[in-house]
Amino acid sequence: MKDQIDNNRELRSKIKDDVFIKQQLSLLSPGIDNSEKRFLVHEFTRSAMLLPDFNDYQRLSPLINALVDEVDTNDLLGCSTALEMLADIASSKQENINYFESIGLLQKIYKLFQTTKEDTDMGITHTACIRFFGYLSTTDSNALEKFPIFTSDVFDAIYHFDSLDPLRRKLAFETFAVVTKTIGAKRFLSSENCQYNIAKAFNCLAVAIARGSATPERKAWYLDNITTIFGNVESAESSNILKIWFNYLGEHFPKLLFDCLKKLIPELQIASLNALIALMKHQWAPEYFCVIDGFINFLLDREVHFSTIGYQLKYDLICRFIEIKPSSINSDLMEKLIIYRNMGVYAPPERHLIATEKID
């Protein structure tokens, strides 16, 4: 924390330092040979604009413009790196988005998104554009409406995920998860007049997780999107919308998630537990899982092997159940959950405790 405060103080000092700014500008010579030095300068610009109180847009405009100029398809790697930096900046606060809009950057990237879509040689740039608008939407709740071609492409990719290669499929679901995060996006996608079929999109996500041909790694990818979507609770309104969306995953989804947890594959266990913890932020969620035969007893069983992270996540999940006291957990099971919590994360299985007591 102290290091971060010191770094921010140093950044603010550099922003006000005319000599330092001139020095940075002197390092911005064009050409691929000088790209490493330029991007060190761009990293300063990015860090400065990420400061919560940053508002020196005019003062840093030459440096900002230099970063924007990197969005040039003559250097695909430089272009993609610049887009990633600009995405970080845009997602940090609305003021940065407003500035980018005022200098025409958003429309520039929107056009680039469209022109690179069908060009196979521009795949890396198109992917960076997708990520840019995905990040943008986490701060600008109207982004889905402002950039309809982007939004349509996201949903089209979800509807036809079977036709995508694994990495494109991963990107499609990740982007879908990210763009649903704000309350503005939730309202828009839930409105009666919305042209996008949110129910179909969630059904596709459930199908992707359930598919037997999906490797554990890919199932974990898709479950991470459940965590992203349901882990962001802004208000009661947001939670109510998410309950409707959860039902779009299908009546068998809770059992599917439990089955993923029982696979005993570390990455799948961790993804499943993270998804459950995200879901349990909502008062409505426990009832979907606690009624599953064997679910609570599985969590209580210390003989089931988990990774170190998995044990901690399972403990956190149990603590959450104790905190919210779901009506579907009877008093006997609740008492066992409390005992589990009191024994700690890494307590040995009960039979080992009994054996130890007999020896003593």
From TrEMBL:
One of its GO terms (cellular component) is cytosol. Belongs to the proteasome subunit S5B/HSM3 family. This is 26S proteasome non-ATPase regulatory subunit 5. One of its GO terms (biological process) is proteasome assembly. InterPro entries: ARM-type_fold (IPR016024), PSMD5 (IPR019538). SUPFAM superfamilies: ARM repeat (SSF48371). Pfam families: Proteasom_PSMB. The lineage of its organism: Eukaryota, Metazoa, Ecdysozoa, Nematoda, Chromadorea.
